[in-house]
């Protein structure tokens, strides 16, 4: 039974990206009197992406499958990260980062909530000390 | 003023107590700035400019230059320990440096970085002193077709960074080229791939991509394991806290390689230290006897790029001091500083201001020595950072990355981009796509496109301009040779296999 | 009784200070270049001069908001409606950007104009060993080899190219334009012999001329600059094209109260009459292009209309 391997999927995805790039270049000038235009370079590498992506999709049909076991935890972490950035946009760095750290420590590493909260608070304090105070780097 | 008397004069200036103090302040600040990801010398120097109005020009120049090359020393620290590039040029150091840290040899890596930086930095100063004016004229002969050749050579390095699958490496590189193209067309007004978002008009900052793909990707990948008592093995015993004699011996060629390549590329206005470190790494890998091991923690893989990005500072000062042409962001601010103090950098600068020039050169010698003394003892101290438990270390890395990115652009949008690239880095790791070619494409993409279009503008559309000029042709031929290397080795392998089967 | 009340009220009103606004914390100065860029340097120089002449009771802090040829900085200012402690330094690209780029939505009309500060003239320069002694020589050579001669410059909408378009149209010639994003690279291209001519600012060219590497053919300005008394202006050289200046000035966010505007107006007026300013202009060979807020608003309208015409004639697509 034909089961597409991860390499085939990524190859196809990249080929699709390549197609998108080439299509976008249709709106721009390729070669003008003054010289090559904005479409020149992207069209070529877009084409290269399509070709190589397709080649990968075909040749990689037999490649080993990826071990997705831990992916849930990793993606979960990423979701928290993205969420904390959204929090930062509205509530500032301290809160966002504290939320992130708390989640990581409590959930990922299964430490008791109190320890997580302490670590979160501690890290925020340290960051604030080093960056805005000592070095003058500003925070969101 | 000939060299010997000039140098003596220069040391007389540089060794004045006030100037030694400024030198120390400069290199210390530079090291700190280099360690912090995102915060770079241009911004720091700009911040200090108003203060320098109170200082003597010599002292101020010595301090600012100290920040410039000091930052190159510090940049390797976070690259090696945390896989977070402290400076754009330190990206290449992450490749083998971090792997060395994972093997418990963080101390050796950090130490070698400091030593390579010292050797190359000193080489850069010596070369600046000896060959600055004639080299400047050579730099002028370099224009768009030659730059294109250089970029092609740099991209050909992808072959050496490929690892198992060349196709995946090429794809990663092409995606890097694409990301480099996001934003306003450099020559005109068309905006490309900006999806209508104003924040993307000037493209995506390299720092965001590098930190996202390298550091965050790594952190996310590490999140997969359930419990990890300690993130990275702490170097045990003195043997692993500093480089061994064997290490130094292994790096003999890397020291030379880094110094020469870094300086030469630094001389070219516009070519940066990132390109220098990539090419130096590629050359080292090509020459090395254990080239397959590169990427898994080979000490020369740290020495070469670190050396290159330090001697590049010496090289970048050549066009600045001999022609008044800044070659990079940092040298542009140094130029501005000189103008602010009333100097006029140009072809007559060295002749008319010998004390400043020679004082600066002498102070760079002193600065390099100070940096070595500063950095080497700190190595075991930094290595202890790895002792921190994972649940403190990883949030710290994430926090550091975010602060670093925000300090560059001040926009939360960039933080969002950082997260996106972190995810990309993770996915690439899972699907076995090498990330170094992506960075390579990103760094070189913009410059390559500009060089190509400028060349074609110069030649009115004819591609022959790229091969008719000697320097450009030479570099393109090298690039082609490098690209053909894997083909040769594969042909050879088939040939041997065929011979075996016949028997 | 009522007369007394009115009289007292009137007296109190007249006695009130003319400027109710005074800055109480650090003033943020937004520029669109990175550290070391043209606007950044001007802002820092102005900050230094303000301190020296004691024109402001507080410090000025330069904030770099790079991107989009000024679009990011302009948008940043436009968002800070009513913010009284922020100003920005604009240049020509803030005015031409919205004409050609759809994403650059903020025009000077969306912000509060404060003052126009300087006009930067330019020089037309060639390498010292080039066979052209006057601009007419160059144009004649260009006529003989259409499209073969090359000029290095900034982007297609930059002043360098506008001058080129105007000259090409007035003389019926054609030569190539090669964009180099960095000023250093443009000069390197000229000195290395890769291009034939460039439009360069006097401050940048000074040293190279003194060293004998460059020769100036003409000046892009209305009157001869003090530093170049022997070089003809475009009009004097016989070319009837307007001398397109590079303009720099000050804007503030929209929606600020009238006394705030009056305060900034006054501060910059006093700056431009100070001795440090005169020295600054002389050192950098800028032209004093001071205009106050009202004049600036008029200038903006006139400049954008003129630019639109020039760009369209040059075949560059305009979106506004």
Report on the structure:
The complex is a heterotrimer of chains A (140), B (503) and C (320). With 140 residues, chain A is mainly alpha-helical. In chain A, 71% of the residues lie in helices and 3% in strands. The longest helix of chain A is centred in the last third of the chain and has 23 residues, at 113-135. Chain A is flat. Chain B has 503 residues and is mostly helical. Chain B has one domain (3-502). Chain B is built from 22 helices and two strands. Chain B has helices spanning 3-14, 17-35, 41-52, 57-82, 91-102, 106-141, 144-156, 166-181, 206-222, 237-241, 245-250, 252-267, 273-287, 300-323, 329-340, 349-352, 354-383, 390-409, 412-430, 436-458, 465-468, 470-502; strands at 183-184, 191-192. In chain B, strand 1 (183-184) and strand 2 (191-192) form a beta hairpin. The radius of gyration of chain B is 22 Å and the shape is globular. The relative contact order of chain B is 0.19. The model of chain B has no long low-confidence stretch (mean pLDDT 80). Chain C folds into two domains: 25-120 and 245-313, 3-Layer(aba) Sandwich (D-Maltodextrin-Binding Protein, domain 2), CATH 3.40.190.150; 122-220, D-Maltodextrin-Binding Protein, domain 2. Helices cover 42% and strands 19% of the residues of chain C. In chain C, the strands form two sheets. A six-stranded mixed sheet of chain C has the order 2-1-3-10-4-11, sandwiched between helices. A five-stranded mixed sheet of chain C has the order 7-6-8-5-9, with helices on both faces. In chain C, strand 1, helix 2 (38-52) and strand 2 form a beta-alpha-beta unit. Chain C is globular and about 80 Å long.
Tags for this model:
heterotrimer; A: 140 residues; mainly alpha; 2 domains; two-stranded antiparallel sheet; 2 strands; B: 503 residues; 22 helices; globular
Helical content of chain B stands at over 70%
- Give the class of chain A from helix and strand content and strand pairing: mainly alpha
Number of strands of chain A: 2
**Radius of gyration of chain A, whole Å:** 23 Å
> How does the major sheet of chain B shape up?
2 strands, antiparallel
In percent terms, what proportion of residues of chain A is strand?
under 5%
Shape of chain A: flat
Estimated helix fraction of chain A: over 70%
Number of strands of chain B: 2
Q: Write out the strand line-up for the largest beta sheet of chain A, numbering strands in chain order.
A: 1-2
Oligomer: heterotrimer
What is the averaged pLDDT score of chain A? Answer: 75
What is the domain total for the residues of chain A?
2
Poorly predicted runs of chain B are: none
Number of contiguous helices of chain A: 5
């Amino acid at each position: 039974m034909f089961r597409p391997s991860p390499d085939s999927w990524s190859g196809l995805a990249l080929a699709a990206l390549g197609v998108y790039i080439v299509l976008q270049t249709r709106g721009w000038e390729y070669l003008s009197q003054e010289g090559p235009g904005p479409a020149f370079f992207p069209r070529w590498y877009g084409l290269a992406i399509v070709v190589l992506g397709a080649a990968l999709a075909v040749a990689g049909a037999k490649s080993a499958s990826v071990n997705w076991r831990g992916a849930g935890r990793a993606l979960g972490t990423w979701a928290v990260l993205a969420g904390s950035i959204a929090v930062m946009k509205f509530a500032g760095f301290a809160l966002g980062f504290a939320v992130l750290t708390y989640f990581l420590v409590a959930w990922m590493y299964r430490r008791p909530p109190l320890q997580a909260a302490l670590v979160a608070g501690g890290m925020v304090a340290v960051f604030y000390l080093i960056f805005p105070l000592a070095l003058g780097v500003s925070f969101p | 003023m000939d060299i010997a008397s000039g140098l003596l004069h220069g040391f007389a200036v540089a060794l004045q107590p006030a100037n030694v103090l400024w030198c120390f302040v400069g290199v210390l600040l530079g090291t700190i700035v280099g360690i912090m990801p995102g915060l770079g010398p241009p911004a720091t120097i700009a911040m200090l400019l108003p203060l320098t109005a109170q200082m003597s020009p010599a002292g101020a120049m010595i301090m600012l230059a100290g920040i410039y090359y000091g930052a190159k020393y510090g940049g390797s620290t976070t690259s090696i320990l945390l896989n977070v590039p402290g400076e754009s040029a330190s990206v290449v150091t992450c490749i083998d440096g971090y792997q060395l840290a994972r093997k418990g040899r963080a101390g050796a890596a950090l130490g070698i970085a400091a030593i390579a930086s010292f050797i190359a930095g000193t080489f850069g100063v010596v070369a600046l002193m000896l060959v600055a004016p004639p080299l400047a004229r050579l730099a002028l002969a370099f224009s768009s077709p030659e730059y294109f050749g250089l970029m092609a050579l740099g991209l050909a390095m992808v072959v050496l960074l490929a690892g198992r699958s060349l196709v995946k490496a090429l794809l990663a590189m092409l995606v890097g080229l694409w990301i480099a193209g996001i934003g306003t067309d450099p020559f005109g007004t068309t905006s490309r791939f900006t999806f209508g978002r104003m924040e993307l008009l000037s493209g995506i900052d390299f720092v965001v991509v590098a930190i996202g793909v390298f550091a965050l990707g790594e952190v996310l990948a590490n999140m997969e394991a359930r419990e990890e008592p300690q993130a990275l093995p702490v170097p045990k015993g003195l043997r692993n806290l500093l480089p061994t004699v064997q290490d130094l011996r292994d790096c003999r060629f890397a020291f030379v390689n880094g110094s020469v390549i870094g300086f030469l590329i630094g001389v070219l206005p516009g070519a940066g230290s990132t390109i220098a470190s990539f090419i130096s790494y590629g050359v080292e890998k090509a020459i090395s006897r254990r080239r397959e091991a590169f990427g898994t923690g080979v000490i020369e893989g740290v020495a070469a790029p670190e050396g290159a990005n330090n001697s590049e500072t010496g090289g970048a000062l050549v066009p600045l001091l001999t022609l008044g042409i800044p070659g990079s962001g940092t040298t542009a601010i140094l130029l501005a500083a000189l103008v602010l103090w009333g100097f006029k950098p140009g072809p007559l600068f060295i002749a008319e201001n010998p004390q400043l020039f020679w004082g600066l050169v002498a102070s760079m010698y002193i600065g390099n020595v100070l940096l070595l003394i500063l950095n080497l003892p700190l190595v075991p101290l930094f290595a202890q950072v790895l002792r921190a438990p994972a649940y403190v270390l990883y949030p710290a890395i994430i926090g550091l990355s975010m602060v670093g990115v925000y300090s560059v652009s001040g926009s939360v949008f960039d933080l969002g981009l950082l997260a996106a690239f972190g995810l990309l880095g993770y996915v690439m790791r899972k699907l076995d796509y090498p990330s170094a070619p992506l960075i390579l494409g990103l760094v070189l993409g913009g410059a390559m496109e500009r060089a190509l279009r400028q060349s074609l503008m110069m030649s009115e559309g004819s591609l022959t301009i790229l091969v008719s000029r000697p320097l450009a042709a030479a570099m393109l031929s090298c690039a082609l040779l490098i690209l053909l290397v894997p083909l040769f080795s594969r042909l050879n392998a088939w040939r041997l296999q065929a011979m075996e089967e016949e028997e | 009784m009522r007369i007394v009340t009115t009289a007292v009220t009137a007296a109190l009103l007249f006695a009130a200070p003319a400027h109710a606004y005074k800055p109480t914390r650090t003033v943020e100065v937004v520029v669109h270049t990175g550290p070391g860029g043209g606007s950044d340097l001007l802002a820092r120089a102005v900050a230094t001069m303000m301190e020296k002449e004691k024109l402001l009771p507080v410090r000025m802090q330069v904030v770099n908001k790079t991107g989009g040829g000024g679009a990011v900085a302009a948008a940043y200012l436009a968002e800070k409606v009513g913010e009284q402690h922020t100003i920005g330094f604009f240049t020509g690209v803030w005015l031409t950007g919205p004409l050609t780029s759809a994403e650059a939505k903020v025009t000077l009309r969306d912000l509060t104009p404060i003052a126009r500060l300087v006009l930067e003239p330019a020089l037309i320069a060639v390498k010292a060993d080039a066979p052209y002694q006057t601009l007419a020589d160059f144009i004649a050579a260009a006529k003989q080899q259409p499209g073969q001669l090359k000029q290095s410059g900034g982007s297609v909408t930059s002043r360098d190219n506008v001058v080129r378009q105007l000259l090409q149209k007035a003389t019926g010639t054609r030569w190539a334009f090669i964009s180099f994003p960095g000023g250093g690279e443009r000069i390197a291209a000229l000195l290395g012999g890769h291009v034939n001519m460039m439009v360069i600012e006097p401050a940048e060219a000074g040293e190279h001329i003194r060293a004998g590497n460059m020769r100036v053919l003409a000046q892009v300005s209305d009157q001869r600059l003090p530093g170049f008394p022997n070089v003809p202006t475009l009009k004097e050289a016989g070319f009837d094209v307007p001398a397109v200046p590079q303009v720099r000035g000050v804007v503030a966010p929209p929606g600020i109260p009238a006394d705030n505007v009056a305060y900034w107006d006054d501060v910059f007026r006093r700056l431009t009459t100070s001795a440090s300013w005169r020295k600054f202009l002389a050192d950098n060979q800028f032209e004093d292009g001071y205009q106050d807020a009202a004049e600036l608003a008029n200038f903006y309208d006139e400049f954008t209309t003129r630019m639109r015409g020039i760009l369209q004639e040059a075949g560059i697509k305009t979106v506004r």
